């Protein structure tokens, strides 16, 4: 297989950028929906296959602007996988929106082009070995998702896009200032020019950097990329963006984009941890994580829109993940990685189901969605399984990661475990309460002619993976995650 | 000679902070746009000076972008937009000019207190520039949170961005400065185009914090 890869005109890691880049250009030129959707799926699938090759074939980091280690390959494989399954869901979902007239056909070339441009920018952000290039990638990802969030052109959609744009832009602006400060800290040690922004060079020399500059830099990076992750109180853009955009974009936001910003945060956390005199970054992440968890848990009780409900669930889970990585240590980091993976798979599966629910019921209002298991058994029970998984019930994978996190926190910081468990129980109660109303009882009216149902395959694949991970994790995967957990410190 | 180049750099960066305060003081959109154009002119002078002092010709590209795009094209476009939308007479500050100016002074003090010690090891020109750049960034944020309409928020964001360009060009030898300033220019152009294309006039009401709360109530 490696021989085949060597025959290509570019390295596999470059394919992660070349394939979506070419596809984005192609898709902008194709006005018809069906060929556009097909190319979107093909490009996403090919990109995922190339991501898998990174498990065995990695570039020499000194040669290019891109690099792969055990950490970013987790994000790349997960991201391209969710991007692929979401493109399958998107094909049928968008087709339905066109049939009912909610989307104009002219918007579609734009939508598919932006989808692939987003894939390009996320892969660039995850593989860039230059912290300035990483920043440009995150900015590009922000622009493409702003366009997609506003796709419906309704008042609510445009407002959500505007809000996301303004808050997202401030976030990336602050992140840029933090990046400049990192360069300023590196320059006296590494010298002027590109090397002072190359991550592999930075991490090798971080112990000699000015700790004061690193501290100030991390504050700005955490505010900036923390906004992109959706951590409270920097989260204000997230519920609107999820609720008002097309549902495939909600899946992509929660399944992929939040993780890219988290990845950037982790890289800089490693940098601070490598300097003995810099302030420990862990407590800052722990604080933001706990605030996000408890705030989002309370907010779950007040929601009336089903997509907004699960948007707040994403804030809760990103808070949990930030808490885990903030705690640090091999067990909590392992739990954080596992949780991130499980959350991406589960939440995007839930959005696949929710997108269909909104279509068959003709509304996103929770009060008008009742008795799904009666009126739409397959869809209803799929949603039940998805919500049970995200709430943390065994035997699903999220239960495993939450259990690992709670037990390691109790062992190391018993007082911190109390608000952690409180937040988890609060969120659990809210989700189960909402679920019983949505899934059971007397069915509410459905749209009479909802059209041909979308494919359930992406949803089922995601939930099966989450179930398998909850029961059994393969040895190589455990070893891989453990290695990453040690890297994170 | 080094003394003079240091003094000139600080004069220009300090000038940007001063013009940021002038923006903070404005309560009419057309005045705000005019002061922002001045802000961009001072930025282009500052970047051009850094290009000369550091012998970094590529920074002249950034200076040209700041001058042409931010000092001329964008203010003129926003000017026309304001007149067309008929919002040029609006008086729209939250909390009044006096308290806002006091908060601005506090933010500048905060920038000095945080940045000067942290950058103690950096060379003198970069150290002062970073502190002044942070002041410009924070004042831009303050403009954004104290204005209720979209165009004012855009101007606040663009002045924040000017602070970032000042910081990046003051970081001697920093790579990707031109690329990053181009990327930011794309971002700003996108904002302005977005306002035109999406006819953001309706947004003026809902971006108002009170109306936004009313609007959200029905959709939560």
Layout of strands and helices, then pairs:
The complex is a heterodimer of chains A (489) and B (220).
Chain A: H1 2-7, H2 12-29, H3 33-53, H4 70-99, H5 108-127, H6 131-149, H7 155-190, H8 199-205, H9 211-229, H10 238-244, H11 247-273, H12 282-300, H13 306-327, H14 329-361, H15 372-375, H16 377-391, H17 397-412, H18 414-439, H19 457-471, H20 475-488
Chain B: H1 2-25, H2 29-53, H3 58-85, H4 97-118, H5 124-146, H6 150-170, H7 177-197, H8 201-207, H9 209-217
Helix pairs in contact in B: 1-2, 1-5, 2-3, 2-6, 3-6, 3-7, 4-5, 5-6, 6-7
β-strand percent of chain A reads under 5%
Q: Give the oligomer, counting copies of the same chain as homo and different chains as hetero.
A: heterodimer
Total E-strand runs of chain A: 0
The ordered string of helix (H) and strand (E) elements of chain A is: HHHHHHHHHHHHHHHHHHHH
Query: Rough shape of chain B?
Result: globular
Radius of gyration of chain A: 22 Å
Greatest interface and its residue counts?
Answer: A-B, 47 and 48 residues
What integer is the average pLDDT of chain B? 82
Helical amount of chain A: over 70%
SSE series of chain B: HHHHHHHHH
Low-confidence stretches of chain B: 201-220
Overview of this structure, please?
The complex is a heterodimer of chains A (489) and B (220). By secondary structure, chain A is mostly helical. Chain A contains 20 helices and no strands. The radius of gyration of chain A is 22 Å and the shape is globular. Chain B is globular. Chain B is mostly helical. Helices cover 82% and strands 0% of the residues of chain B. Chain B contains nine helices and no strands. The interface between A and B is large, with 47 and 48 residues.
